[in-house]
Every structure is written in structure tokens, then in C-alpha cells.
Request: fold
Amino acid sequence: MKPFADLLERLLYTQGRNAKIVVLADYFATRPNPERGFALAAIAGKLDFPGAKPAILRALVATRTDPELFALSYDYVGDLAEAIALIWPKAATEAPPELPDVVATLRTTPRDAIPALIATWLDTSDVSTRIALIKLITGGLRVGASLRLAKLALAQRFEVDVDHIEEIWYGLEPPYQPLFDWLEGHIARPAPGTAPVFRPPMLAHPIGDSDRAGLDWSNYRAEWKWDGIRVQLVATPSGKRLYSRSADDISATFPEIIAAMDFAAVLDGELLVIRDGIIAPFADLQQRLNRKTVTAKRRADYPVGVRLYDMLFDGAEDLRALPFDTRRARLDSWFATTQPARMDLSPQIPFHTEADLAALRDAARDEGIEGLMLKSRTSLYLAGRPKGHWWKWKRDPLSLDCVLMYAQRGHGKRSSFYSDYTFGVWTGEGKLVPIGKAYSGYTDAELLILDKWIRTHTVATYGPVREVEQGIVLEIGFDAAQRSTRHKSGIALRFPRILRLRSDKPAAEADTLATAARLIGAERSSPMDQMSPTDQMKMSQ
Amino acid sequence: MAPHPETWLQPRPEGLYCIPGGFFIDATRAVDRAIITHGHADHARSGHQHVLASAETLAIMRARLGEGRAGVTQQALAPGEMLRIGAVDVSLVPAGHVLGSCQVVMSYQGSRAVVSGDYKRHTDPTCAAFVPVACDVFVTEATFGLPVFRHPATGKEIAKLLHSMAIFPDRPHLIGAYGLGKSQRMIALLRAVGYDAPIYLHGALAKLCDLYVELGVPLGDIRSATVADKSSLRGAVVIAPPSAVADRWARRLEDPVVAVASGWMRVRQRAKASGVELPLIISDHADWDELLKTAEDVQAPEIWVTHGNEAALIYQLGKLGRRGRALSLIGYGEDADDT
Ligand SMILES: [Zn+2]
Ligand SMILES: [Zn+2]
Reply:
């Protein structure tokens, strides 16, 4: 248990994605089976136990420590599991239980015997192991790394393609012995079988001016780029799953889609909130994201559907090695005969020249459209982002000139820079009201200038936050402005990022709240760096 | 009958004052006569007339404060030596906190008080170990006066650092450590496990590290991080004051693993809030168990607590049959780096 507890502790403090992969890879490479398999299960959220209530722990700690001292300690530490782990009498000899034993014992121990069991374990464990044990037993174990990162670590350490792990993942169960046996070269790769596994999606490149100039337009099909989240629908005789683009299983979040998947196929499409055939703003879809369960009311208020644009499997037949036009024809005829509920087809847009498309792209004002997709007629369905097959041609971003108000240090490589910015616009009364935060978009040179300026123009500090003089104008680009009751300004910007530093512009000439309000409802394109988990789900095509 | 120490040792705004000796201990403002327990900024202030301390503490004060500002006259007292000041017998006894740190032992008409300054009981290769002296009143700090603070063995923490260096062989490991005591202890602990590569230092640490070496604490190959080129810092250990770790100074390092060596790293939220990637729980202050063990060892019926988390400590001392008293002296432990 101790090496696993140490892993959890290290992940808790490690910030960068690459650093987390290194930490995970080291763990998987050095720990034996089945311990590492159970650790992987913990990361996958598959180590669930009936769970002891915090009250049991409080009662337990009262038998070993002075209540007055515990109260003072808990008050200081703030976290129950940690306070108990720290105050518990020191182990005479440290011999913490092993993770596989903990898992096996917890599965067979009756509830009323749990407190005594915990006490025995705490008596022989170090602090980090105690914390991990208590969190495991109370169902509060959180791992500071996603399952995807763990898979990437395995792929990197054992030199296999991560997609090959993804393909077999759902056929595996903890503690994943066949997976490790294959990774170490002892056996052939386990067959994916008919398990409803995720298939790595094909992604598009943003198209630049020079790309467009060299394009043979006659070889391309055009579709709208929808402003939802990219999903993969997988239905096989052994199960149905809905996956996000990053392989997260979001079936439980969208049960009505799963219910509508009364077929055997693997489909690619965009998940959208659609009311009477009209796509609702992305903010509506956000009301449905990142929820483990969903109420009937929420389902009714935010009805979802999938707009389909590609077909990977028809029944057991793999279509990925067929050209795009052929796959699309298969999708069309499959759709005509199957008539699945809650789904429609993303139409293809007829055009002759680049100019036709450019005009359509500029004229598109619908909430649900981010721009255009261009797909080569002959493109096979290739995993990843192969160049020259699929292009995305987004609309230009919206922008506002805002005044820098607060700054905070960044994380990881940027932890010594004031690199996180809160900015605002002027109200009618001539006051600044914060309208958003941005962490990206500036050049290294601009970052240096901003950092230096912030250090010398701070007017107040609130913990890690510096309030600065109203003297710097930032041109902020964003995809959309939406009404928001959670923001003081009443407006929320989507994907705000810094387009440039407007050192030419005095703060008084920055934009006003009224100007910002006029942009509500307009939607534009975005780069894919710097995203929240919700934003990441949003990453489509 | 011997007079109770509270009749002759008093907390005053300037610090603890010994009436029959006419001196302050670790005075927080300039006074005529001061005895200094150790060289940390909150204990060794500038501007006193007469300063009495261990020879090492005096040397540290001169290095830190400048020749003229570490007392107009300086007097060194060797550990164990007795000196009569006024009507009081004074001696200095090692406190185990940093190089030169001493407890002040005062005997007056058969009553004895010991002021510990800051101290610890964990072993430290860079300074003499704490020596318990039986007394009527023991004056202690309580920086870590909560039962959640129990520092692990330093070996565990150094092993954590070495493991990180093994899995990130190309990233420099930047350790935030207080300039006096902690930095040198970190270096010595690394040397003790056979790490003999150059260790790079922030400019602010150079003077004190050199002084430690001069005073007989070997630190091996130490170099300036400021003049070193980026490539030589790859995979190296770099030590800087905690304030520099999160500052622009750290930019010279490429993708460093940021570690901080401090007793505060024991509590995750505090460690997380400081933004470290590798918290090292290494402290130069007594933890909960050491505070209680020391109270036991010195057999003092009464314990005065100068500063820190005194509530829990005084409560627990009471349960153990000792009278605890909070002096709540202002001005100590303000420099949170000193942990
Ligand atoms: Zn000190
Ligand atoms: Zn101190």
C-alpha cells in the first residue's frame, strides 16, 4: 500500500501532464502484479467499497486520542482523513498492508468489523499510507491523474501504441493481469472481441491561408462544423457506450442517447442540445456535461441529440479502411433503414469554389455553427490527426479591448510569472467590471512585459492575487459571449485568450460593458490550448 | 527558599529580561545587554550594545548583519563555561537548532531557568545536539505545537528527493530552504548518503555556507547557481531561499522540480498552497513529540511558551502535571522561512 500511497501523494503535487506521466510510468514499471493492477483500477474509479461513514472514523479516533487535541488538530488541518492520519499514535514498527491484501480484505470484511480493521492498519502505517487507506475506505479516494494519462504512461513505458490499449480496455477487469502480461511481451494482445470499446477518432487540422491556396477543392466535401461535443456511439451485441473524443465514457450522463442506440454500429457525430430542430447555445449543453447522473427535469429542459457524420463499423464490419464517400453512402443508407431516435445526419454542403464556401462561412450566424469542415472524398478513417485529409475552417474570433485588473502567478513552468489575468470593461458609471480571465495567447515577450509591469504597478494584494493599476489594455479574443448570472458583469466569455497587448491604447479607451453585451449570441472559433475539463469535452473534430 | 523564576525573569516588550543579570535574551529591539541564542533574524537583531553568544553565533551575526551592527562589544561564551553576570550564573548549552544555537541556562539564588531559543531533538550533522538541563522553569517555543506535527526521519525525506532525481534525471531539483541552518543541513544530509555532485547555491546562501565550512562543517563541492550555465544545472540540485523559489530568480532553471524543505510541508493543504511539486518535511524545530519529551527530560514543573501553537501544548502539559504559561512574545517566528 505504501508505494501506491506515495504515488498518490506525488500525483497530488505534480502539476504538468508530462511529469504525471513520468511518475505513473515509474510506478507501473517498478511495482509487481497484482498491486499495479489495483492501482490502475483505482485510477479508473473501479475500486469502490461499501464505504465506512466519517462518523465511524471520528468514533475510532476518539478511542485513541484526546478529543480536545483532536478538535484543535482537525480545525488546523481541515481534512478529516488527513487529521486522523497525522494525529494517530506513531507506529512502533511500520509494516503497512499491501494494496492487494487491502482490496481482498475489504471485500470480505463485514461492515461492523471495519473499524477494528482500520485501527490495525493505521497502527502499522506511515502517514501517507494512512491517508490513502482512510480515503479508500470512506470512498473518498481521488487520484490526481486521469485514466487516459495512466494509459499514456503504460504506452510510453512499454512502448506500445496507446490506441491499442484503448481498443482492448473495456474487455479487461481489475487487476488487469492480461494487460500487463501483454505489455511485458509474455502473451499476444488480448482480443477486443465484441466489447463496446472506444476507437481512436480521426481529427482535423485547422486550415491556414497557404493550405487553402494549395487545395484541390474538387476533391473535398464540406459540412458545417457544429458547436457541440464530438462523440463516438458504440453499440455491439455486448453493450452500448457513448464516448467523448478523449475516450471518457459519458454514457451515464446521456442515458437517452444510450436508450436510442438500438442497433449495432460505431458512429461518429456531434452531441448537441436541440429543441424543435434548432441547436441551442453551447451554454445549454454545458448544463448537461460533467454530471454522473441526470434528473428527468434536466433531461427535459436540455434535450440532446446526435448529428451523425461518419460510420466506423456497420454491425461487425469495419468500414475504416473505406474512402470517405463510401463510408458516407453506407451511413446514409444505414440511417434510412434504421431511423434511430434522437439522431439526424449532418448534411453535406454543395459548393463549386472556395469563394462559395468563404461566403457561407462568413454569413453563418447560427448559434450552433463554429465554421466549416472540409473532408477529402478519398480519406480513409485514420486515427489521430493525419495531415491533408480533414480540415477545419473556423470563423474568426470575436474580440474586445479590456483593461487588466488582477494578476496571479501561473502553474508549472510559469509559476514564477504573473501569467493568469483577470480583465474588465467599463460600466456606464465609468467603473471597471471584471468580464473574464485568460491564461494564454500572449507571446513570451508579452508575458515578460506584463510580468514586469504587474510587479511594479501593484496597488493591493489579496493572498496570491495582485490588483494592478488600470493602465494596461489587452485585446481579448473569445468564441462567444453568453449571458451569465454567475458573473458580476452578467456576461461570460467562452475561451477567452489574449490576442495582443494594446500598448498603443489608453485604458480609458477600452471597450464598455454595453459593447460587450452586443456580442452576446455571436459565436466564433477557438484554439485548443488552455482548457477546462468542460472545454476539453467540448473539443470537437 | 529559592525565588520563583517569575520574580526575576520577565517578559517585556523588548523580549525576556533577566532582572538580577540586567540582560535581555533574544531582544527584538536594540538594548544595552543581550544574550543571543542563535543567529536567525527573529532572534539576533542588530544594534545591541553588548552581545553575548556562542562564538559561532557571533560569527553568523557578523556575517548576516555586518561587522559593526552585531553588537558594539561582543563576548563569546564556550558551551558549558560558567559566567557570572550581576547576581546570575549564566552558561550556554547546545540547542540542536542550527550551528552555534544554544540554550541560555540561568541560576539565581538556587533557582534555575532555561531559555531554549529554538531547538530540535532530531539529529543534525551540522550542529551540536540538544542537551537537556534540569530546571525550575523551561522556556520553549511551540512552532509545531500540535499533535499533527511529527516530523518523519530525515532519511525518508532524502530518499524521496533522490527518487525524484532518479525519475526526472534531466530536471534540476530546486530546493527552497532557509539560508541559515536548513540549507547547510540539506547539503550535509545529501553528502551523508553519498551524493557528491556539485550543489548549486543562490547568491544569498553563499556567505553562510562558506562560514559553515570555515567553522568546520564540510559541505563538499558547492558552487554558485547564478554564474552556472543552464546546461550544467540540468539534473542538478539547486538550493535557494524559499522566497526566491517562486520568484524571478528561478527562471534561470529549465523546468525545475520545485521542492521546499520545511516542517510546514507536513500538512497537504499548506504544501499545496505553496505550489511545491516535492514537499520535504525537514524541520529545525521540535515537533510535538520532541516538545513533550523535552518537557519530560528537563523535569521542569513549569513550562513557558514564547511563541507558536501554544494552546494545544499548554493543554497537554497540564494533563502531564506541568504548568504551562503562554508568554505570547511578539516578534518571533515572524519569518516563516525559519522552520
Ligand atoms: Zn531559529
Ligand atoms: Zn525562531
